[in-house]
Amino acid sequence: MQMTFLGTGGAVPTTRRNTSALMVRREGERLLFDCGEGTQRQMMRFGTGFSVSHVFLSHLHGDHVLGLPGLCQTFDFNDREEALAIHTPPGTKSAVENLVGVTGARPGYPIRVHEVQPGGVALRDEEYEVRAFETDHRTRSVGYALVEDDRKGRFDRERAEELGVPAGPLFSELHEGNAVELDDGTVIEPDQVVGPPRPGRRIVYTGDTRPTAATVEAADDADLLVHEATFGEDRSERAGKTGHSTARQAAELATRAGAKRLALTHVSSRYAGESDRLAAEAREIFDDAFLPDDGDDIEIPYPDG
Q1: Is the pTM here over 0.85, yes or no?
Q2: Neighbours of 140 (CB within 10 A)
Q3: Residue 252 backbone class (left: φ over 0; alpha: ψ -120 to 50; beta: rest)
Q4: Closest CA to 20 of 41, 3, 6
Q5: Which of 56, 134, 212, 217 is most buried per CB count within 10 Å?
Q6: Listed residue (23, 47, 49) closest to 203, CA to CA
Q7: Mean pLDDT across the stretch 194-199?
């Protein structure tokens, strides 16, 4: 699983930071979280590819959605045929449909807009799901947690051979959770040779929000929490009034959640040229906090390597 930060800036883009967008690539599938103005150019610039199957919108403020009409049009120009799913907060479906169709042209491929409820599952796949959780901004908003299913336990080949299981198809049967019978009638149960299930990965994306208990719950033991950090402590009062967080608040939340790493995004243009201050403030609380630049790629390893 790999993440590319396509846009790490706040509402006003700068020469270094575009507006919000995050690409997640997992097993060949591309998931896009938010789509600020200029996102498609960022995708070209940083080589993420355009084979996006799902777009997850945290809320409908312009710096998170204004890139969507152009991206959908580019898909059409590239003769896309497969459907595109757009997931959006409650009560915003018609606004997203109007945004996509703002030019009056109908794309030649299906676009399906789904409203997601906080606490619900936005997407269920064979090996993972994307869950929506409640956030606290100045409009209808949600965050998203990509949570992989548990993986099979490790197969103990040495133990299996000690029990007399011949190498081959019976190994696979046991690893799939099925008991097997040997030629002498001995039955070998899976738990004799297969370890406990191993956790998958969890990444959490907040979009714009004040710190919330729901985010703490969603980010419980997360491998990576991507939390907005629009302001430093010098503007903590403004952060609260405008529905945002400071870098320090994001770090405190990551600590409460037990997250392994914290990425700070949505940096206000006020901090252009001095954004390292925000990372420093966060690291006073949470050692593994960092502030990615546009184009940074982050590999998300399995918890057990």
Answers
A1: yes
A2: 17
A3: alpha
A4: 6
A5: 56
A6: 23
A7: 86
